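Notes to self after the call with IL:
- keep both proteins in one doc
- input above output, always
- annotate only the second one for now

Protein 1:
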Amino acid sequence: MKKIGLLVVLIALLFSCSAETIEVKKEEKNTVPNVVTKDTVGLKIAYYQLDSLRSQFKFYKEQDEIVSQRQLAFQKEIDRRTAAYESYLIQKDGEAKKGLLSENDMVSIQQKAQKMQEDIMKYQQSEGAKIQEEMAKKLEVIDKRIEVMGKQYSEKHKIDLLIAHSKGGQFTFINPSMDVTREFLNFLNENQKSKNK
């Protein structure tokens, strides 16, 4: 009797598993998107060299220079603090070798040196994070400006697709006749002047 009951449970379990498998297979069939094919005759595609934008788009260079100056000042401050820390250690080591320091002085010096080192590390972390955040925000502003001006440029010249191309990018080859880097850079720089006024 127990065997029959167990057999009935196993058969019911098998049927429920196969029913779930059939439902999953039905769902998989319906996952293909319905994409409308459009006529590409007359489609106008152009590209610009992203590396050239980084080196020749004046707004990009200005923003990069601001961040570079902050990074330079940051590094100078780290160097200054590190030099003060090392100088303090050398001075106190010399005093210790001459026997000018008591045991209490040594403990106090060790605590001060440890505090100086911790302060340097805290400064590196907090200011470094601020600079990275500032850089990310500036890149976001630059990207948004390129996007907006890229749309204006494309609308002005009736370009359907404007692609940013860089070495090691997704495209192995793009016909050089589609390269609008110089013209797009001129457009960006000219329109940048009017935005700055």
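Protein 2 (the one to annotate):
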Amino acid sequence: MPLTGEYVPSSQQWVADQVATYEATNGREASTLLDTGIPIIIVTSLGASSGYLRKFALMRVEHDGEYALVASKGGAPDHPGWYHNLVAHPLVEIQDGPEPHDYHVEIVTGDERATWWERSVAVFAPYADYEAKTDREIPVFVARPVD
């Protein structure tokens, strides 16, 4: 079931532009993190307090049809805004290519987190640097398809 509501683009213009281009081209363009060549996915969530649709790009960390959503915020001391959206509303849409699909997200811990963290660092090595510069444990959500 697709998420519905009013879409409010990111206040960061490059994020809003990347999302718009990715969606307009069914993932053929703007499908990497800037000029790094690292593939991304587009995540659509509901705002925790606003209820607006929010869209953002994250590294594509996929395994067996599931995705890791790493709330790193570059190693900042606080969580990214979208973290709170996913905690409040764990149903999201993920677009990895031409069309979005529904997923349920949950924060993973213990061995499961360690496995997904390893996969995430393998895709985007700076995650290890982000972890080293913050005192918080960086949350890792796993998105699983909704049947």
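Annotation: The chain is about 30% helix and 25% strand. The chain has a mean pLDDT of 95.
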